[in-house]
Every structure is written in structure tokens, then in C-alpha cells.
Prior knowledge:
two-stranded parallel ribbon; alpha/beta
Amino acid sequence: xxxxxxxxxxxxxxxxxxxxxxxxxxxxxxxxxxxxxxxxxxxxxxxxxxxxxxxxxxxxxxxxxxxxxxxxxxxxxxxxxxxxxxxxxxxxxxxxxxxxxxxxxxxxxxxxxxxxxxxxxxxxxxxxx
Length: 129
């Protein structure tokens, strides 16, 4: 990873030990982040499994670490929209990439734009605000 680009920070919904990686197939991604100088963090103890209720809470940390939140795809109900709510409560700028009117994976992003989120159509968009 080029150091001018930045570092990856992954926030887990469970332990930073193997049992906290979810889905477990992401173990290689976890290891690569560490090898390239990034960080993997969690507010949960070493024995915590990735429980369903941990993920919405974890999303507040993700938005807290971010300057801006960009949503690429979101169904009508999604974790991305939970992150958006945290971001708005933290005073962060929210961007959404418009999607196909025919895709259920774009319902949330298109609604965000309709509700006043910043349109993200090119990288330059995030430098305007």
C-alpha cells in the first residue's frame, strides 16, 4: 500500500482474536491490513463473538473515525443507513452514490439523496464541502 494514500482501519463487531472476524473468510483481509501497517480495532473483549447487536453499535466508531461518510449501496434497511444516522448525529458530511431505480440495493442510497445527502458522482465531490 502506498503510504501517501493512507491506512486501513477495520472496526470489528467482536474480538480482535480469530473468533471475532466475521465472516471468517475475511481472515486474509484482516491479516493483510495488519501486514500493510493498518489497524484492526474493537471495543469488545478478547472472548467476544461477533453478535448481531454489536454491528450497529460498531458503526458509530466507523463514522466517528471518518471525516465524511460515502454510501455506495444500501437497501431500504441496511447497516450503511445506521452508519449514516451515527454520522449525522456526529455532524459528519454524508454522501450517496445514486443507483439504478430498478435495484433494491439502491433504494437506500437514492432515498438519502432525496432526503438531502450530498450527491457523490466523482471524487471531486468530496473536496467541495
